[in-house]
Amino acid sequence: MKAYTAEQIRTAEAPLIAAGVPLMQRAAHALAEVISRELTATGVRDRILILAGPGSNGGDALFAGAELAARGHGVDILPVSSRIHEPGFQAAQEAGAQVLADLGSAALDIVAAATAAAPRAAVIVDGILGTGSAGRAALRGSAREVVAALRDQDSGGSRPVVVAVDIPSGLDADRGTTDGIVLPAAVTVTCGACKVGLLTGEGPQLAGRIEVIDIGLGPALAKLAPSLES
Q1: What average pLDDT does the structure give for the chain?
Q2: Residue 136: its pLDDT value, please?
Q3: Complete edge-to-edge strand list for the sheet that includes strand 194-195
Q4: What is the distance, to the nearest Å, from the Cα of residue 9 to the centroid of all Cα atoms in its chain?
Q5: Separation of alpha carbons 57 and 80, rounded Å
Q6: 117 CB contacts (<8 Å, ≥6 apart)?
């Protein structure tokens, strides 16, 4: 598998973004398909908990949540920051997703909402941090407390399947390093190409099954030498 750094991915994305190609919508649709398959495989509950961060990673998760809610799935959104991707947030709510906490809620309230919702969920979508955090991947604030609480939570039964968007939040996309606070994924849906951090350091133990989704970066990536091949 060929893997690229976060900077290489941004380089490949830049001309498509400039041309108005809807990369986020492509990623969200493919992510929704993976989540739908995981729901079918679990067969126990039809509820999805989205941990939504402030950036494009959260946007991917929210637009995927909107698509899944429109299909009739139960979708809960938990903003873990005082900011959120507004277009994705609006789309998810208009499609019928439920919001579990107000933006900027106290960390204690966000953690309580997360630990109450997780046992009801078949799938938890980690849309907190993506490749934009390479070099400064450590989780902070409410997001850090939520991930720590969910990681250590005793579900008392079958645990939700964790689907990470692009890379498990808290894992450095280039180095595969963490500070110990990461929600291990069963599946990592990574956009455009595999990221180096998924294959190095702690990445293989935290990423689970890696699914690379095509968002149209192939021609641009073909001009770049992969940073790692495995």
Answers
A1: 94
A2: 64
A3: 194-195, 2-4, 228-229
A4: 17
A5: 13
A6: 49, 76, 78, 100
